[in-house]
Amino acid sequence: MNNTFLKKTALIKASIFGALVFSAQLAFAVPAGSVTFKSGDATITHADNIVVPAEKSASLNEGDIIQTKNGRVQLAFIDGGKVSLQPNTIYKINKFAFSGKEDGTEYNFTELVKGGLRTISGLIGHKNRDHYQLKTAVATIGIRGTEYTAFFGSALTMTTNHGSVDVCSLAGECLNAITGQTILVAAGNIPVYTDKQVSISASKPTVAKLESSANKSSNENSSKTVFAEGDLIYDSVLAQAESQTETPTNAVAVQAQAQAASDLAAAQATALAQASVNAATDAATADEAAQAAAAQALAAQTAAAQAATAQTAADQVAAAAQAAVAQAAANQAAAAQAAANQAAAVAQAAAAQAAAAQAAATQAAADQAAAAQVAAAQAAAAQTAAVQAAAAQAAAAQAAALAGANSATIVSLATMASGSDNNGVYKGTTTFKGNAGSGNPNSGNSPNGNALKQYIDNSNTPNIVTGTTQEASNDGIVRWGRAAGGTYNNQSMLMTNWVTGIATPLPVLANLIGTYVVTNSTAPYIVKNGNITAVGASDSVRGSLNVNFMLSTFGYGLIIPVPGKATNLTILGGGLLTASSATFKDSIHSITSTACGGGCTGLLYGGSAVEGSLFGANAERAGLQYGVNIPGSGGSGGGGNLYGGAVLTKQ
After folding, report:
1. In the structure, what pLDDT confidence band is assigned to residue 249 with cuts at 50, 70 and 90?
2. Which of 69, 315, 369, 472 could form a disulfide with 481 if both were Cys (CB 3.0 to 4.6 A apart)?
3. Among residues 406, 501, 413, which one has the least CA distance to residue 453?
4. CB-count exposure of residue 382 (10 Å: 0-12, 13-18, 19+)
5. What is the full DSSP assignment across 64-81?
6. DSSP string for residues in 562-592
7. What is the pTM for the complete model shown?
8. CA 473-479-480 angle, 5° bins
9. Least confident of 246-250, 390-394, 479-483
10. DSSP string, 324-362
11. Could you tell me the end-to-end alpha-carbon distance of the chain, in angstroms, rounded to an integer?
């Protein structure tokens, strides 16, 4: 018996040792992650160019390229990160390393070649942010602990679903988006905010809840979570991994499973040993047990006879008691039935009364609802009519202005001979003459011309343009241009920029949310020591503007070639809007350029760098002017000022 027990114990120990050795061998082959869900004909191309189907549980390694084709794929990385890929997506794992903690050797560099994805970040990038990067052909995405959605075709669009995301162009110009914000990066452009959020078919990545063996119930099957295809699961595991632990969720699961296997093997070994001991003990005392059983059988026969006698007496008593109880129950049932009948009659009468009251109340409510609906329809019709009337009035005013009427809003920037400037958004009267390049653009009035002859602002101060018109054009909604010479309030001018038209009516602004892109611009020019030292090219400025009158905010980004220098100047800024005006002026901005030297500053009124207005019956256009001081512009020996204007079209 003892030899058998020892052999079984040795066998169990050998099995456990073998399992541990096998588990240790598996631990050395750590992939980057695995496929957790797959549909359609998705494939994985390994670094050695071998193509295999993207089956569930397939391992992912550095250098792998996942192509979803007509299907969807969900990936799980060993640092706890999750990625859900939509159809027609190509996703590449360029570099991945993770030892189980953030010690500086971890990296997660991936690439979205095309298509869309939604992802929840793992541990990589939370401590060393530059160790996480999603690359595209136009920009890169970095994280600060987040969940985001991205789509890349000809441009990259990224929406932050939770947390904070940095998006940087290939030129290194970055923009940050917090929860609910969206960033757009087109080829060759800077990142800008947009109100069009990413919408793709990929599901939110699943994050299954893990549970340690100490918290599991004794019934192992009851603690297992089963997920169906397409289920979306999210809980506190990610938040816990982000804020505290350095152990990835996959490693926790492996550790828990190994502990459970070890506990089960030990329990089995103990049970086998106990069974062997019990068997030996039972065999040694079998004879004694048989004799005791015989004595117990005799005693049981005697007790059975006594029980039979007692049972007969008990049956007689029970029969009498049962008859008495049955009679009492019958009497109580009859009384209860009578009471129930009476209660039913009362309830029926009450129900009839309640039904009548309900019918009356329903009719009254219907009448009130109908009256309210009519009133609401009338109010909505009145509101719509008011907006349409305002838009029609603005359209009529716009048409009149372009047909020769002279009442308009003008975004004007006049550079004085003294080197200073006069800028602003004015309401007043404008007079136009011939177009730039015509026979004599400075003589006479021409209602259909685009060259500004003069404007008188709302303070009755005249601005008279008597020099040569360099640029002048219109698109049916606004006029814009640039001219040399003239006077402002009897002071000599070097250059005047203008964008003029009918400002957008206030009712249209109330709920306006829109994105505008630069479509035309006057040539940038630099003034230094009372002289124009350099002039750039027309339509060379790029950028965009976002307005949100519901939140009373706006933001913009401009890229301006610096005349006379092989470099660009970038302005990023924004400020507050008011529903009582179509004008805007930045209250905060950032100016960057290799030409800035000791630092560039805004030159417009109040230290702003950009100001402008919205034009058109439905806010179809925006016009702006910019002014920046650039130390060293126009040559050595002092600073210079950069000026210009732009027209933007609503997208």
Report:
1. very low
2. 472
3. 406
4. exposed
5. -EEE-TTSEEEEEETTS-
6. PTTSS-EEEEEEEEE--TT-SEEE-SEEEEE
7. 0.43
8. 70
9. 246-250
10. HHHHHHHHHHHHHHHHHHHHHHHHHHHHHHHHHHHHHHH
11. 89
The secondary structure of the chain in percent helix, strand, coil, rounded to multiples of 5, reads 30, 35, 35
Q: How many CB atoms lie within 10 A of CB 352?
A: 10
Strand pairing class (155-162; 182-186): antiparallel
Residue tagged 């001991």 (tokens): 277
Render pLDDT for 584-634 as a digit per residue (tens, 0 to 9).
Answer: 999 999 999 888 877 899 999 899 999 999 999 999 999 999 999 988 644
Question: What is the DSSP code (8-state) at residue 106?
Answer: -
CB 448 within 8 A of CB 472: no
Q: Is 61 exposed, middle or buried (0-12, 13-18, 19+ CB in 10 A)?
A: middle
How far is it, in rounded angstroms, from Cα 614 to Cα 624?
9
Full 3-state SS string of 277-322? HHHHHHHHCHHHHHHHHHHHHHHHHHHHHHHHHHHHHHHHHHHHHH
- The CA distance from 177 to 199, in Å, is 17
- Mean pLDDT, residues 82-102: 95
Sign of the four-CA dihedral 630, 631, 636, 641:
positive
Q: What is the DSSP string of 134-180?
A: EE-SSEEEEESS-EEEEEESSEEEEEEEESEEEEEETTS-EEEEETT
The dihedral formed by the CA atoms of 343, 348, 352 and 358, expressed in degrees to the nearest 10: 70
Q: Which pair of tokens denotes residue 229? A: 């295809």
Strand 82-85 vs strand 59-60: parallel, antiparallel, or unpaired? unpaired
The residues, any chain, with a CB within 8 Å of residue 305's CB and separated by 6 or more, are: none
One-letter identity of residue 598:
G
In the beta sheet, which residues pair with residue 33?
60, 77
Residue 213 φ then ψ, to 5°: -65, -25
The label of the residue with tokens 């990224």 reads 158
